[in-house]
Amino acid sequence: MSEDREIAPHVSVVVFSRDSKEALIRCLTSLARLDYPNITVFLADSGSTAYDPHAVESLFDGLILLETEGYPGAARCKNAALARILKMRRTEFVLLLDEDTIVHPRLVRHLIEAHDPQRGWDILQPAVYELESPETLHGYGGRMNFYTGGVSMNRRLPRAADPADEAAPIDVAFSYAMFTHRHVFDTVGFFDEWLFAQDSDDVDICLRAPRRNYGVAVLPGAIVWLAEGRRHAASRDPFERGRSRSLLVRRYGRLHHRIVYLLLSPLMGAGMVAVEAMRGRPAAGLSAAMGMLRGLTMSLRGAGPGEAEEPDPEEWDERALPGKGQGSASHR
User: Fold this and answer.
1) By CB neighbour count within 10 A (0-12 exposed, 13-18 middle, 19+ buried), where does 303 fall?
2) pTM, whole model, 2 decimals?
3) pLDDT value at position 234?
């Protein structure tokens, strides 16, 4: 191992993928160009049927395939991958990426250099730009509206306490490009598979983190490009979206937030139905409204704040991978 690798903290990069080979190859190729000496790249495939993920693994030196078939839900797939990579003692930092991202060559170096627990820069979100228009900003992480349960994208850089700061505080770092130290998962826990199995699991963990004195921030100097398809929320289950809104307010809102939400929920539900009806999808609007109602009536007992149940991972012995993980995955 080179001296640079001995000094540089080890970063485990996990790319989540299913049935999108072209986007995946594009993402892995960008990772192979990273200017950082000590990373391991993992492919977490959640049951692809359109192609053989082993064939993709064979294309990149150092790439390690984590098959999570049987865990189709977003949170469960992430937890299955995290449970295995955190068994590896060398894993110090974790970078989560979706297959429809492309990374800047200096992304990891910027994230490592900026990570600063003293300033609350524990969970970091890169600046995200549009892949189809590389100079067009997609967003600087997200912000939570505790009155409506809605999460929106920061289209402008949030104000930092010190104008000279490299990073600025945000409410939410989206998991399609999320970076943090392993201690955050050790302390805060994994993604909540019970309440947020399909939607808002990244919002939940970012709102959970401050309760354990961790901060969430966006780093504008670190850059990721995101493909067009990720922006379309129509493919997400409208029932789960509506349910998550209610559950986020119930779990993290103060009393006055919850009261206002209860008063506004009939109007918001009617608005969802009307908007989706105008788009020709009245059933989706009704489903979202029903999800909001279900979230309001669900009991939170049995899963306290931050107590997400971890999956039972298979035994994972990093010694069984001689020669792998000593650098970024490179194209064969």
Assistant:
1) middle
2) 0.88
3) 40
- State the pLDDT at residue 6: 61
How much is the mean pLDDT over the chain? 87
Q: Which residues pair with 45 in a beta bridge?
A: 17, 67
The C-alpha atoms of residue 238 and residue 253 are separated, in whole angstroms, by 22
Q: How far apart, in whole angstroms, are the C-alpha atoms of residue 17 and residue 281?
A: 28
Instruction: Please say whether the dihedral angle defined by the alpha carbons of residues 13, 18, 23 and 29, taken in this order, is positive or negative.
Output: positive
Residues in contact with 311: Cβ distance below 8 Å, sequence separation at least 6, in sequence order: 71, 76, 79, 80, 83, 193
Segment 35-87, tens digit of pLDDT: 999 999 999 998 888 888 888 989 999 999 998 876 777 899 999 999 999 99
Strands 151-153 vs 177-181: parallel, antiparallel or unpaired? unpaired
Rounded CA separation 23/221 (Å): 24
Got the DSSP string for 168-204? Answer: EE-SB--TTEEEEEHHHHHHH-S--TTTSSSSSHHHH
Averaged pLDDT, 217-227: 96
In the chain, the domains with their CATH numbers are 3-233 (3.90.550.60), 236-297 (no CATH)
Residues 39, 10 contacting (CB under 8 angstroms): yes
Residue type, 199: D
